[in-house]
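Checklist before submission:
- one chain only
- standard amino acids only
- sequence pasted in full

Submission:
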Amino acid sequence: MNWFNSFSERIISFLLLTIWLGNPVGRLSNMNWQTFCDLGTNCSDRAIQFVIDQKYPQDQIMTLYNWGGYLIWRYPNLKPSIDGRMHVWRNEKGYSAFSYYYPFEQNLKDIDKSRYNYVLTSTDKPMFLRLIELAKF
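Returned file contents:
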C-alpha cells in the first residue's frame, strides 16, 4: 500500500506540474515555424527579404543556424548555409558545415577570414560586434 501512495502522489504531482507549466504537450502540438520565431529566435522577415532583394550570391551568404528551418519553410529560394540538423552531418570527406560555421558565429574565428561576404544573423550572436567593427572600416 505504501508503494501505491507514493506512486499516486508522483502522478498527482506530475499532473499539477503540467497544469502549472501551461500544458507543454499542447504547446508542442500547436508549434509551427511562425510560433518558433515568435517565441525567441527572433526571425527577421525584413532582414531576410533585404538579403533576397539584394540578389547576393547564395554561396557567399552565411545564415543563422537557428533560422535554417524557418528559411527552408518560408523562403525556399534562399538556401541557408546551415540549419539545425546540420550539426550531425558530415560528407564523405569528413567536412562538417557546423564545424566550419560555429567558430565564426561564436567569434572564435574571424568572420573576415571566412568564405562569406554577407551575413544574415541576429544581434545576440558573439560575432555581431565583430561585424559592426568590420562595417566601420
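Reviewer check: The CA atoms of residues 17 and 76 lie 40 Å apart.
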